[in-house]
Amino acid sequence: MILQAIDKDGKEFSFNEKDLKGKKTVLYFYPKDNTSGCTKEACDFRDNINRLLPYADVTGVSPDSIVSHQKFQQKQNLNFMLVSDPNHELAVKYDVWKEKSMYGRKYMGIERSTFILNEQGKVTKEWRKVKVAGHVDEVLKVLLNEK
Question: Residues 3, 5, 38, 110: which is the catalytic one?
Fold first, then answer.
């Protein structure tokens, strides 16, 4: 599966899931750029990137377009890769594309989730229905224990 992504410097490139192999990765799925919870989560990863990078790269994934990602990355000064998954291919593979409900209306969307992938691309830890507050510290704690 080939998707579009932007690197930490805002440069666009074609992303293949195989690009995640060979290094440990924190792969986090979030619903939408520039919303309050997603912005807080992205900024928590940004602010802790120096604590995380010795153990794993960080990659964010949402269905937003690459243009939306570029604006989000620039506005929030994000220092990690963002992947655009408009057809939900990666979200379906990781089983985070779920039926949701708001004010009685049902719709499909991303269930905020995070995965740690080992160097072979295998999931070693997962969090579903992530609560943003304190989540990055939970991820770091697991990375330190896997070291």
Answer: 38
Q: Nearest Cα to 6, choosing from 76, 114, 80, 85?
A: 80
Tokens of 53: 């990078």
β-strand pairing of 12-16 with 2-6: antiparallel
Q: Rounded to 10 degrees, what is the CA torsion of 6, 11, 14, 15?
A: -40
Say which CATH number the domain at 27 has.
3.40.30.10
**What residue type is 66 in one-letter code?**
I
**Residue 44 binned pLDDT confidence (cut-offs 50, 70, 90):** very high
Q: Is 43 a catalytic residue?
A: no
Domain holding 15, by residue range, is 2-146
pTM of the model: 0.94
User: Does an H or E element contain 3, and which?
Assistant: strand 2-6
Exposure of 30 by Cβ count < 10 A (0-12 exposed, 13-18 middle, 19+ buried)?
buried
How high is the mean pLDDT of the chain? 94
**Total domain count for the chain?**
1
